[in-house]
């Protein structure tokens, strides 16, 4: 019987092992994210949060090393595009991303909605409720693209695109815009972080799931499938929900 053996080398940032039968198996993966509380953030220089804990658990299950970088979002995405990192999280799905990313099963369920000042009586029910508003949103992002689709349904809506989440909420607090369109969990975490006591959540626009996106160019589908299978096992055995419960987050329904 012929013995199999392996060689190792560094390709970009990804260490891979090639068995001479032709099968490739990653032994290290780099995951990029942004400062996106309460989903991902740094504590004493270490990237933490529910998504990080989930990914670490999966990596342990399939026997690979995983590392995390918290970067400005534009740079985080570019590194995945050019192969300096394997994947990025947490992200929503859209058609543009599906062209170049493999997606994990959903990590958690969340929602987009509108924040207003406490003295605004708005209880958001449908898009006509925000006719004439000037709405802040972080972007370019999946969130801002969603707001652009809302704008297409209205005669009068002004979008105030912001380079970060925090500045939009500060502008709302200071009466310089009428509302902020944001992930509910992110908005509530920011309001608490910067102590904006005059803002509130006015209502949900839509629910969505958050995922990990793996570069199709720099990851084999077989390796992504192996990662995703382990994540699905966490869903079925309850360990995914147990992690999310610690962070008061909702489990996505996987069909």
Please tag this protein with its features.
disordered N terminus, alpha/beta, D-Maltodextrin-Binding Protein, domain 2, 33% strand, 2 domains, nine-stranded mixed sheet, 255 residues, three-stranded antiparallel sheet, single chain
CATH architecture of the largest domain: 3-Layer(aba) Sandwich
Instruction: Tell me the strand percentage band.
Output: 25-35%
Strand/helix succession: EEEEEEHEHEHEEEHEHEHEHH
Question: pLDDT average, as an integer?
Answer: 91
What is the C-level CATH assignment of the largest domain? Alpha Beta
How many distinct helices? 8
User: Oligomer, anyone?
Assistant: single chain
Structural class: alpha/beta
Summed up:
It is built from eight helices and 14 strands.
SSE inventory with pairings:
Layout: E1 6-11, E2 14-19, E3 24-26, E4 28-33, E5 41-43, E6 46-48, H1 50-62, E7 65-70, H2 73-82, E8 87-91, H3 95-98, E9 101-103, E10 108-117, E11 134-138, H4 142-151, E12 158-162, H5 165-173, E13 179-183, H6 184-193, E14 199-215, H7 221-237, H8 239-246
Parallel strand pairs: 4-7, 4-8, 11-12, 11-13
Antiparallel strand pairs: 1-2, 2-3, 5-6, 8-14, 9-14, 10-13, 10-14
Helix pairs in contact: 1-7
Structural write-up:
The chain has helices at 50-62, 73-82, 95-98, 142-151, 165-173, 184-193, 221-237, 239-246; strands spanning 6-11, 14-19, 24-26, 28-33, 41-43, 46-48, 65-70, 87-91, 101-103, 108-117, 134-138, 158-162, 179-183, 199-215. It is α/β, with parallel strands linked by helices and 255 residues long. Strand 5 and strand 6 form a beta hairpin. Strands 4, 7, 8, 9, 10, 11, 12, 13 and 14 form a nine-stranded mixed beta sheet that branches. Strands 1-2-3 form a three-stranded antiparallel beta sheet, with no helix packed on it. A two-stranded antiparallel ribbon has the order 5-6. The radius of gyration is 20 Å and the shape is globular. The protein has two domains: 6-108 and 210-246, Periplasmic binding protein-like II (D-Maltodextrin-Binding Protein, domain 2); 111-208, 3-Layer(aba) Sandwich (D-Maltodextrin-Binding Protein, domain 2).
């Amino acid at each position: 019987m012929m013995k199999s053996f392996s060689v190792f080398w560094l390709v970009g940032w990804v260490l891979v092992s090639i068995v001479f039968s032709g099968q490739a198996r990653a032994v290290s993966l780099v995951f990029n994210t942004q400062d996106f509380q309460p989903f991902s953030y740094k504590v004493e220089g270490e990237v933490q949060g529910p998504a990080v804990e989930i990914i670490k658990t999966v990596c342990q299950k399939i026997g690979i090393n995983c590392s995390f970088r918290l970067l400005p979002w534009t740079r985080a995405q570019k590194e995945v595009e050019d192969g300096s990192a394997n994947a990025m999280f947490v992200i929503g799905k859209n058609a543009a991303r599906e062209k170049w990313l493999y997606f994990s099963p959903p990590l958690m369920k969340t929602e987009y909605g509108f924040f207003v000042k406490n003295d605004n009586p708005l209880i958001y029910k449908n898009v006509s409720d925000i006719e004439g508003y000037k709405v802040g949103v972080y972007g370019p992002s999946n969130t801002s693209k969603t707001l652009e689709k809302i704008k297409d349904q209205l005669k009068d809506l002004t979008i105030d695109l912001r380079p970060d989440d925090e500045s939009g909420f500060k502008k709302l607090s200071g009466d310089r815009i009428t509302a902020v369109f944001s992930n509910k969990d992110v908005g509530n975490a920011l309001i608490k972080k910067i102590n904006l006591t005059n803002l509130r959540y006015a209502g949900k626009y839509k629910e969505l799931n958050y995922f990990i996106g793996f570069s199709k160019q720099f990851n084999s589908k077989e390796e992504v499938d192996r990662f995703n299978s382990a994540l699905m096992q966490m869903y079925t055995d309850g360990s995914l929900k147990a992690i999310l419960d610690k962070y008061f987050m909702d489990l996505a329904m996987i069909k």
